[in-house]
Specification:
The structure is a homodimer of 436-residue chains.
Chain A (H helix, E strand, L loop, with lengths): L3 E5 L7 H13 L3 E6 L12 H13 L5 H17 L6 H14 L3 H20 L2 E3 L15 H12 L5 E4 L2 E3 L5 E3 L4 H12 L4 E6 L20 E3 H9 L7 H10 L3 E5 L8 E4 L13 E14 L9 H11 L6 E4 L3 E7 H5 L2 H12 L3 E14 L6 H14 L7 E3 L5 E7 L3 H9 L3
Parallel strand pairs in A: 1-2, 1-7, 2-4, 3-4, 7-9, 8-10
Antiparallel strand pairs in A: 5-6, 9-10, 11-13, 11-14, 12-13, 14-16, 15-16
């Protein structure tokens, strides 16, 4: 028996109509045995997510204020779903329970988690699957740190005996039963952990886009979809700020080599993007699969004759940053020079101090800072065609009249990082995209 | 009164005919008031340099063996010069003095320094200039370390009052008058120090080539001469192993912004290569002035998700190298990866230990070593045209079918460092040269 863990995001669960789409998606493939669900998301741009409504309820309750209007809105969201699907679900009872909790001793994580909890229970009823409360099997320490190893054991215990199950995303509990939520990645992390626990053949992540795009659609008009990409390529895109699965949600699946498929609930025939360790045979490996980038970067340029003479100059430089707990994005050492790429916002408050320390410690021949740069990542686990791809990318940037400051490709050839002035960021992304 | 300090190398002083050429060169420009001379070099490929003969005399004398045959060869070299120039020079007296020194308590530095000493005295007689013995004004500590500050003061004191002088290169003395020699750069360093001491308008370095070439002539047939280059570009070429002025000989002049002109004694009409801080007005700035490189490189590739999260991963990596006193040529950190370029010969003996330490300390997701790489430096203080130049270079390499592993251009844009397989090194140099 093959197993697909299918995680559905908030917009995929925003109303009864969306629930029906999911039922059809599940019906089409019996491997989809384990579902992980978010809370109802926005139905239209101005709408509020149920989790945000719940947070408002908590804030008001904690301040001793009236929260009933927001709780009523929560109830209405679920009533539309339950009635739309003609389910016999004890909604009033659940809402009443939450009202009592809020009136007595409100807890933030518990309150916020009720969106997923209710959605999962309703979905389980609707599909005839077993409801699995992550309070039983997604394990946190008392200080709120997720315990991945324990979660794997507990999730195995909870899910293995079940043929079909719906798990609520986003939360879990500690040994005392106190609810905690994931700070980052939310239900995506739950989905990834569930996929690992049951050693799924596939982890589907159903959302409102048909996979990942090769560039930011706010910059490039109608960018193409990426069909296949590697975990490492995804990580690069994520690092560069593309809104994709959070690293915490990718790593568990990546560790076990479980393919991740990004799908669109509103366009279920679209195969979306498949994130894999290795391409299936016969699938062409593209040297460049996408382009992403970040603005707000500074470059610190330190020059000193004979930097590379083994005096540990670069090591001292990096120790200065480490002692200041100042992270850097890139470090390039060459002949007599070190170039550091640091985020503007991190550098801002300590810039003068840092430069002074570098001056006093290292006595550089030249020390300069250039602000308002952006870093472009040309993403692709490039094979033998990497050189061609690099030429095309640099040529496109040059033709677009964009000044290139730094160029960085490590031996892994996973990405080519190029520094360009911030005001040319969008042009640079478009230029690189034109080569894909 | 303008001052040119002219340093002449060994082949420029190999015999009487060469001395005559120098007299003509000095006659043509009265600014050439301070000369720095080496010992007589080779007259033909199988010939021995006088300094090497002197070293053999010392080795034999120190071992209590007969050194007279080699000392006779030294005498013959100078006799040819003195008689060829019809000078009344007390050669026998000087040789006798050296013989006594060797027979009594031979000192290596003193013995080796006599080549320059005699040449400078002969040249001073021949030109009617004042002989300046660097034992008076090139200052060393007793442990043999050059004292640049004291040398500047002493050289000023020695040279400023003189209208015309010949200084012997290569050596100096400590406070006790004990002779010491420069370990690196030899007479070039003396020339540079003299130029600084008299605040020369120009430092000419006369040798047997008409300036610096844009590529290694053993790889590229008849490479063009570089007309102008910056100190920093020279330093890059030097670092990459091109046989040019040693850094120790460039730095003092560079510090004072004294232009260095590499000239050819056998082709005095050729303007050679001018090394400057800034190009003279109207002079075109070439984005790439030359290409050089080094074989025998290894690349260590360390990958770990979230390297760049501020955990100091790279700093720890460089500390490992620093503690092992293992110098590295380049370090490139990107997203989740560190690439280190290290010389094969340095890595060889400690490779397994180092990898083990990296594994145990950093627990990387991937750790790999690639040997037998070469690093190509595309040298040029590139301005706005840098991108064009980079495209052309990468394109040329790609067309030549050369696989590129690493690409590194820091914010200074002084050079583009490219890693290519060692077996393609020569092809890569030719490909890059074709773009210049």
């Amino acid at each position: 028996m093959r197993t697909t863990v299918a995680k559905f995001g908030g917009t995929s669960l925003a109303d009864a109509g969306q629930f029906r789409k999911i039922k059809e998606i599940v019906r089409q493939d019996p491997d989809r045995r384990i579902l992980v669900v978010s809370a109802p998301g926005k139905r239209f741009p101005e709408d509020m997510k149920v989790t945000d409504l719940l947070e408002r309820c908590y804030e008001a309750a904690a301040a001793g204020q009236d929260f009933s209007a927001d709780l009523d809105r929560v109830r209405e969201r679920y009533r539309e779903i339950v009635e739309g699907l003609s389910l016999d679900f004890p909604l009033e009872e659940e809402i009443e329970k939450l009202r009592r909790h809020l009136s007595e001793k409100p807890e933030k994580a518990y309150t916020e988690s009720r969106g997923e909890y209710l959605n999962a229970r309703i979905m389980a009823d609707y599909l005839g699957f077993t409801f699995v409360d992550p309070a039983w099997c997604v394990c946190f320490d008392r200080d709120g740190t997720p315990d991945d190893m324990m979660t794997r054991r507990a999730m195995q215990a909870a899910l293995r005996p079940l043929r079909q199950a719906v798990v609520a995303g986003f939360y879990g509990a500690d040994a005392d039963g106190v609810i905690h939520t994931f700070s980052r990645g939310g239900s995506d992390v739950t989905g990834s952990l569930a996929a690992c626990a049951v050693q799924a053949d596939l982890y589907e992540n159903w959302t409102d886009v048909s996979g990942l795009l090769a560039a930011d659609p706010r910059i490039v008009e109608m960018p193409k979809r990426v069909e296949y990409m590697s975990y490492r390529e995804l990580r690069t895109l994520s690092y560069m700020g593309a809104s994709v699965l959070h690293t915490d949600a990718v790593l568990p699946a990546a560790d076990m080599g479980i393919p991740i498929n990004i799908r669109n609930t509103d366009d279920p025939d679209n195969p979306g993007t498949m994130i894999v360790r290795k391409l299936p045979k016969g699938q062409k490996k593209y040297p460049v699969i996408g382009v992403a980038g970040r603005k707000g970067m500074s470059v610190i340029q330190v020059e000193k004759v004979m930097v590379s003479d083994g005096s540990g100059f670069s090591a001292i430089m990096l120790d200065i940053l480490k002692n200041r707990q100042l992270p850097f994005e890139q470090c390039l050492t060459g002949i007599d020079s070190i170039t550091l790429v640091i985020r503007d916002d991190l550098l801002e408050s300590c810039k003068e101090d840092l430069l002074e320390e570098i001056r006093e410690t290292l006595h550089p021949d030249f020390l300069g800072v250039k602000e308002n740069l952006s870093m472009i990542a040309v993403v692709g686990e490039k094979g033998t065609e990497s050189s061609d791809a690099n030429v095309m990318v640099l040529q496109a940037l040059t033709r677009a009249g964009i000044e290139i400051s730094t160029i960085n490709q490590g031996a892994g050839k996973l990405n080519l990082l190029i520094g360009v002035p911030e005001e040319h960021y969008e042009d640079a992304v478009r230029a690189v995209y034109s080569t894909i």
